[in-house]
Amino acid sequence: MAKELKFQSTVTAEQPNSEIKKRKRSEAQIEEWETIRRQSTTVEDKDLNIEGVMRLTLSVEMQRFLGCVFGEHVSPEMPWTNIKKEQLQAYLTAETEKSEIFAVKEPLMEFPGTEILVGYICSAKEPNQFYICTTEAAKKTVLEMIIKDEAEQERRVSSYIYKVCQEWNPLGSGKEVEDNQPKHARPLLEMQTWAAASHLNQPVMFQDRNVDDVQDGYVKFDPRRHKYVTVTRKRTDIAVQAVPEKCLSVAQTDTPLPSNIWTQYEFHADAQKEIEDEELSRSIKQFLHEKSPQMADLVRYNSVFDLYKVDYPDLVTAGHDVQVPKKIIYSEYQSFMDVRNCKGKVISAAAWHPMWTGVVACAYIDHMQNDGIENDVILQDVFSTNLVLIWSFMDALNPKLLLRSPRKVHALQFSPYNENLMAGGCSSGQVLVWDLCDKLKVEEDISLSDDKLKYRHALHDLMGWTRPTTRNRLVNPALISSLEFSHSSSIMDIKWLSPYYEISHLGRYQELKSNQPTSLQFLTCSEDGSVFVWDLNARGSRRPPKMKPKRRREYKFMVRQRGALSYKQMAVLKPHYKFVAESPSSKGCLPLSVIAVEAFPLRYMLQTQTGFRRKFNMTERLLYKPEFQQVKSLPKSKVYIGSMEGHVIHATWEGYEFNLGEEMNSETLKFKSCGDQHDGSVSALCLSPFNKKLILTVGGSVFGIWRDGIKNVPVLWRTSSVMLTSGAWSLFRPSMFYIARVDGAIEVWDFLVQSNKPVLVQSISGSALTGIYPSRLGPVQNIIGVSDITGNFRIFFVPQEHMKSDPRNKEAVTEFFHRETECRHFAQERQDKWKACNADLLQVKKMDIQAAMKKREAEKKAKERLEREKRIQEEKELQMGKLKEEKDHMKEEKAMKRWNLEQEKYLTDVLLEKKKLDESALMDKKVPLDKFQEDERQKRLKQEERMKQQDKLTERISLMFPEIIRETVKADTNMEMVLKELEETVNIFVEHYKENEEKALMFKTNNTFEYQVNWKELLAEGKNRRHVIDVELYRNTGRIDRYHKAKQELKEKLDSLQGKKGEYGKQGPSRRGDLQLKKLSHLGRREK
Amino acid sequence: MASEVEETMKRIQSHKGVVGTIVVNSEGIPIKTTMDNTTTVQYAGLISQLSDKARSVVRDLDPTNDLTFLRIRSRKHEIMVAPDKEFILIVIQNPTE
């Protein structure tokens, strides 16, 4: 404590002078404290109650000797001191006994220690009084007492000291202290720890674990009660290096060329420098001489073509190219059907008007029916109405014009350069010419309002009782060829000839006579194998070739004159020239079905006044006029004909140089080529509108495309599974054509697209189609007419896709056919070569086939004879048996039948009455059922027919390919083998022959000819034949008889009628009367 | 002599799109050039190296075979290389020009 105070004092001493006052005061205080302290610590003048401590008085000399002089060694503050035992012992030995110290001589001498504790007693009344510790224990106790006293005193002193709070004066150590103190230099780090959930959920693998190996292996539990202290760790020290390490990187921002070992040299390539070295120069020259041409080529190529350009995106030029093709459909626009006139009739021919748009003529004929009297051709011809209707788009239900014809019309054709003329061919072989007398125009003049039209219709309806003579819809033929000069059989086709030239009487093309603007000639072909040339101009004196536009008055005149146009007058029209086609296979004429001539150039110009860019309506009728062109060369005298037997013939004629003197010159056609690929009558023969040389033919189930210059075979032909009825070229694409089928579908072919199957097959009618007619004029060119067997003429839109055509297509078509022709030629050549090489082999084969055929036929005949005999035998037996039975049963049966019938009738009557049903109504209801049944029956019949045909076909085929061929087919290739086989077969044949000869001779000798005549059989056969003939004869004679009879009756009837209605009788022309009469008689006969 | 060489090079150079023509010797040192020095050195060094590599590849594939021509088509240029025993003819062309 003293030290501290001292230190304190030194501290105060260091204080600056300004604080002296304070220090003085503190000194005074210290003195005060000293006195207090002295009083407290001074050894009191009383005996210390401690054993071994003795009180004695020591003289000053003694004090000096011992070293405990008051004021020098001891003081009131520090009364206690140690003296040396040796000094004391020395003093004791030297001194006398008189000294007071001797009193304590003995204990002192025995004292074990070296130092003896002596204390001065300040409080004693006498001076120099001292305590002395004689024993060790006393000394210890005194020392303890001293420490105790001191502590007591210090406590007392400290409690006395008054401490004043003072300002802290930093002396430079503060900084150091501060540095050692931890401080928040940055925000505290926040730590978050978590365990992945997956870790917790993981499957646990347990394994052995030694508890001694690890720290927390086990926990010891004491049996006693034990208190565990849980010490929570509240702070974790984690050091993180938050200062990023210093890094140093350098980037080169300058971009010099990268260099490596090859490019780092500093070579200066001087292009201008001349090469001094002769050797080097020469070698360079040599090198460049070699390489530069190639390089130059490549460089040039590169500069022109980009070899690496990606062309795929350019392949699709337009967006629509990649679209999925739409389904192409021929949609129907209209269908013409006159229920009144043409129900149940067949369209035999149709023709589009070449100048009026949307006008079509259709010829209707009766169904060819199989049953009974209906099949009577003559009756049908005479009594049926043979109409040719002209339709326009304006009205789909009522025809525009009704053309009359005396016979069925099988062919129709408008004149391509005279709008009013139409030629027709009859089944009788006659040619008809109708003059439409501008009647097609009439509709144009009518500019009536709707109301007016209505009134007109109403009026017409009211006038139903009048005879239809006033109706200008009826047109009778203007010309009919005379029967004697006409074809002897039905006309099948008509074609108009070029207007620029005409065929002379001598059968040669010649220039027109000066007074004729155009020629008016046409060709007809017929079943009798003849082709006639007709010339309307030949009658020039009687009738102007071109019709002047007729006034109404004239028209009326015509109507009145109609009755006068009798057959006799028509006899004047006779053919101009005649061609005859002879059958190539057998002698006789070839029945022709179609004819075609080379097309002539003719353009049609729009005549109707039209506004600029006006949109044309489908129903609108536009008139086109033909525009004649200058033609220099005469057409070639050639004609294409198709026969009923399936021939397609390219024929020519020569004509005569001088008149033979006959009434009509005739000539046999020369066949340049004749193909018979068709398996049925050729029903269509069309020249391509784009390529003069191409011809499309349809016949049977085959259609073919022929090309001029290829003889006897079509370039391309396809066989269909169904029969084909007609065909026509498309007017838009050179490679497209249409085929009509029996099953009511049309096929659209485009052989540039695919030549193995049609592009499109669309079923458009339930019944067989009879013809297909593309329209050729202006805004209605996109339609195609299809006629079917039920008398419907349907008009279809040609889809846009089939109207577009690439101009290159034309070339492609030519190219295509050229290629095909080449192929064919090549094949033909090879075949010929092979045939020439293997003539012997072929001969042998032929012989074999013939032999086989003969054998088969013989077998067949034998079989047939046997069967016939057997049958006859059986029949005879049966008849014999029947005759007897019949007589007995006849009467009985008849009676029974009658009874049953009556009963049935009675029953039905009763039933109907009871149920209150009307019989006629029931019959009406039954009609569809009947129809259905009838259809079924027809179908079955057809099927049977087909099956029969199949049998025939297979038979024929099997005859054509006998087994022998099949066996030797493979051997053909090896000549030696063939020869060997040949020898063998010849040998075999020789052997066979010998055997057969013997057998035959034997047979001959054994079986001498004996023929037994069975007179009864012969008679029966004769009778049978006679019966057949009689029946047929009766039918013929009977018909004539019946006809006369009916005629007589009706004449009587008519006479009586005329008596009643005189006016009708006068007015009615004889022909009409005749017709009616015939009809009536026909009806009468039917009733019979 | 030398003028003939230059003429040949000029002829090649005259084609459409040709950027430059270089004749390099077998060591990769340009002998004749129509381009500037740095480009020439770059082309000469790198192309001759590539051509050597290409030749070795061709030879490795078939020891009797030899490289006759090398075309490098890049986005900007087409580099045509005609290597020989002693020299290499390099033509750089810009075909889309």
TrEMBL record, chain A:
Region (Disordered): 1-26, 1053-1088
Subcellular location: Cytoplasm
InterPro entries xref list: Dynein_IC, WD40/YVTN_repeat-like_dom_sf, WD40_repeat_dom_sf, WD40_rpt
Pfam families: WD40
Protein name (Swiss-Prot/TrEMBL): WD repeat-containing protein 63
Keyword Cytoplasm: yes
Gene source species: Cryptotermes secundus
Superkingdom in the source lineage: Eukaryota
